[in-house]
Specification:
heterodimer, A: 2 domains, B: alpha/beta, Rossmann fold, 6-stranded mixed beta sheet, 10 strands
Chain lengths: 523, 268
């Protein structure tokens, strides 16, 4: 039975790749990336072989504990738990529980994260190959540790399955998960500085952790290497008890989960909350704007970018304090304008087949385009103006403000106009409605890349006048190009916006059913 | 709901020539190598409750999509009350209310917002929309969930809110693709009442279904479609010719499986 489950997992993995060659390419890239990281980690562990035993012990224990933490947190936080062998699918097959658990646990090893963890854990055997008992201890510890990682991950995902399948939690976690991802640079720098400053603390932390379930398994090799057999024996018992306890928890949780359906956890709400529909004029364009704005707040695929935008100045400020130069900070306004304007180029693809309502009601293409553009500009305009002024509060030369503002507004308006045309003509592969923004989207990757890069290239061409004027101001130092820019940027941008809305609307009127048919392919 | 009869200028003494509510002429669609709809022509009389039945994959949804302006046909065209759907799409879409099958909704809106949105997209007046939304939600038993996001609705509730979106502009022709799928019996009865009253006051309803009993009880006309072709069409009594609609359907479509075997299934 265990062999059957493992074979099933392998077959599922193989079939998922068979659907399109691009998925094979994606898997290939993932494997290469993981191999690089695994190679680095193993090389590091082998280098530790020649180092002081205390240092090696600290690194191995802390790394092992971090792996355990990662296995517990990441599947839930990223809403990306590996559900290929979802236990709920085995309810009708009456598989005996011990065999089901063993099969699912070993199945967890198949796949990139499981294999990578196992390989790195086996690398610790290299670190402790200083004596036979130490190497044997490290091997036992690695097996116990990796199994604990997988079972802990299963415990957490099973326990939170009800929670994780609720829409609210999925939406929130997907957006919140973006924050550490965007701030990765500052976080890594901060942690590295902290480690450099407090080596003693880390050694003490590792010593403590090694007596807890988090680090006991990983410390076996180190204890045996320095000859403390008593401590090693105790820690072996701790590690074994940890694995057994986790397995028991998993079994109990699974037994309960298999006979209870996940609770949706929604409350009934009566009428009365029309939201943005009350604020916008009751016209087709106004309705589209109200609907789009509701989506900017409620759909994690949109609100994800709303979370990223306030973090951008933080990133730029951090970079500026690190290097002491505020030059890049000047461009936070134009960059934000670009990001926000380009984000609606996938609007119709995000609608997916819900776009059928627009086709069925016969809403004019111009109204559709205008509504979406207004919804984006309502918040993008104040944000972009604010971020264009921001660098000058940190000491940039105020003479540059008109030029930067002109470029920002030019990029914003031209970009929204271009996006209105692009999303009326081309569909791109995006995560489906209700999916996590991190989920790999189905569909034609080649067309997506072509549309995205082609569109960005066109936008660069469209804003050449503004960019040239700003460059002229940098070169000549004269204020005049800046003042021209602050007028030309918005005027040229708004003209392009009007043209884009008109052209996009015309295409939409002509090709609405064709666009819907393209969307239905990626349903 | 009342409707203006077509042709107000027709002479009093002579009945105006009846314009079908929906008239399909040689519709055809091919997906890759598969011909989904193969030259289908059909007239749906105004004021009828028309059922379209057919086995899975018969081309019902494709036909209705082409008839309602959602999918451009390879050949042929469709007329709604005499208006060409593919030449004058805006005029034709004003006359139609559509419940498509298998498309998503803007489900991050609340039920109330979604129906309001459908009304406003059609350029309706704000006050008319808000009055009709409240009545529709009450009639479809969705009042207590009006403020809940559609994504959190059950399958049956989702069908009902999509139906409300199709009704909001009081269309003359309703095209409903599988309207009763996963709708509970009480709501289904309420929906049938609404549709019956709508037909009684002169509206036309087209439903597709593969529940024969439902079509036989509910509809006055029926068309049988299989493999993209029209096998029979007319009043329900004409088509079933004395037998039950289900027996007649199986006879027309064929494909009953009389194979022997599966004896082991009786051995326990």
């Amino acid at each position: 039975m265990v062999a059957h489950l493992l074979r099933l997992k392998l077959t599922l993995l193989r079939n998922s790749v068979r659907r399109s060659p691009w998925q094979l390419v994606g898997l290939g890239i993932g494997v290469l990336y993981a191999l690089g990281l695994v190679g680095l980690a193993i090389a590091g562990l082998l280098v530790l072989r020649g180092q002081d035993a205390g240092l090696a012990q600290t690194v191995v224990v802390l790394g092992g504990a971090a792996a355990l933490l990662g296995w517990a947190v990441i599947p839930v936080a990223a809403a990306a738990a590996d559900m290929t062998l979802d236990p709920a699918r085995f309810t009708t097959f009456a598989v005996p529980m011990p065999q089901l658990l063993t099969g699912l646990a070993l199945g967890g090893l198949i796949g990139i994260p499981g294999t990578a963890t196992a390989l790195v854990a086996l690398g610790t055997v290299g670190t402790w190959s200083r004596s036979l008992p130490a190497a044997a201890g490290a091997l036992v510890g690695a097996v116990l540790g990796v199994l604990s990682c997988i079972v802990l991950s299963k415990v957490v995902t099973t326990a939170t399955a009800g929670l994780a399948s609720s829409r609210r939690f999925k939406d929130a976690s997907a957006v919140v998960f973006l924050i550490p991802l965007v701030l990765m640079g500052p976080i890594v720098t901060g942690v590295a500085e902290g480690i450099a400053g407090s080596g003693d603390f880390l050694a003490a932390l590792a010593r403590t952790l090694s007596w807890t379930p988090a680090g006991a398994a990983w410390s076996l090799g180190g204890e045996l290497a320095v000859g403390s057999y008593g401590a090693a024996g105790l820690k072996f018992l701790i590690a074994l008890a940890t694995l057994a306890g986790l397995a028991l928890c998993w079994k109990l949780l699974l037994q309960r989960a298999l006979v209870t359906t996940p609770y949706a956890g929604t409350s009934k709400k009566r009428a009365g909350g029309l939201g943005f529909f009350r604020l916008f004029p009751a016209t087709p364009a106004g309705a589209v704007a109200a609907r789009s704005l509701s989506y900017w707040l409620r759909d994690p695929r949109y609100s994800g970018s709303l979370v990223v935008v306030p973090l951008l100045p933080v990133l730029f400020l951090f970079q500026a304090t690190q290097t002491g130069s505020y030059g890049l900070l000047l461009f936070v306004g134009p960059l934000t304008a670009f990001l926000l304007a380009w984000s609606i180029s996938t609007d119709v693809s995000y609608d997916n087949t819900a776009f059928a309502l627009h086709v069925a009601t016969g809403v004019r293409g111009v109204h559709d385009r205008l509504g979406r553009a207004v919804a984006c500009l309502v918040f993008a305009l104040p944000v972009v103006v604010g971020l264009s002024v921001l660098p000058f509060l940190f000491g940039a030369d105020w003479q540059l403000l008109p030029g930067v503002l002109g470029l920002s507004l030019g990029v914003l308006f031209s970009g929204v106009g271009l996006s209105s045309v692009v999303s009326a003509r081309y569909t791109v592969a995006v995560p489906l409605p209700g999916d996590s923004p991190f989920k790999k989207p189905p569909g034609n990757v080649a067309q997506t890349l072509a549309v995205q890069f082609g569109g960005m290239g066109v936008l660069l061409v469209l804003v050449i006048p503004e960019a040239a004027l700003l460059a002229a101001q940098f070169v000549t130092g004269s204020a005049l190009p800046g003042w021209i820019n602050v007028v030309l940027g918005p005027v040229l941008g708004l003209a392009l916006l009007a043209a884009g809305v008109r052209l996009g609307g015309k295409w939409l009127d002509a090709r609405g059913p064709e666009l819907l048919a393209q969307l239905a392919v990626n349903r | 709901m009342t409707f203006q009869q077509p042709g107000p200028h027709a002479p009093e003494n002579q009945p105006p020539p009846p314009v079908p509510a929906l008239s399909l002429r040689g519709l055809a669609k091919r997906f890759g190598g598969k011909i989904a709809v193969d030259g289908l022509s059909l007239d749906v009389p105004a004021g009828s409750f028309f059922g379209i039945v057919g086995p899975n994959g018969a081309g019902k949804t494709t036909t209705l999509s082409m008839a309602t302006g959602l999918l451009r046909p390879d050949f042929g065209t469709a007329f709604v009350h005499g208006v060409d759907v593919w030449r004058q799409p805006l005029e034709a879409k004003k006359l139609m209310g559509i419940l498509p099958d298998g498309v998503r909704l803007f489900d991050r809106l609340t039920g109330e917002q979604l129906v309001t949105y459908a009304g406003l997209l059609r350029g309706m007046d704000k006050d008319v929309v808000s009055g009709r939304v409240a009545e529709l939600l009450a009639a479809l038993d969705l009042g207590p969930d009006a403020g809940t996001l559609v994504v959190d609705y059950s399958a049956g509730m989702t069908k009902k809110i999509a139906l409300a979106s199709a009704l909001i502009h009081a269309p003359r022709l309703l095209v409903l693709d599988e309207p009763f799928e996963s709708v509970d019996p009480v709501s289904a009865a309420n929906i049938r009442d609404i549709l019956d009253r709508y037909v009684a006051s002169g509206g036309t309803v087209i439903v597709s279904s593969h529940v024969m009993d439902l079509v036989q009880r509910m509809c006055d006309h029926v068309a049988v479609v299989a493999a993209g072709r029209l096998l029979a069409a007319g009043t329900v009594d004409e088509v079933r010719a004395g037998a039950s609609l289900e027996d007649r359907f199986v006879q027309l479509v064929g494909g009953r499986n009389h194979t022997e075997g599966l004896e082991w299934l009786r051995t326990f």
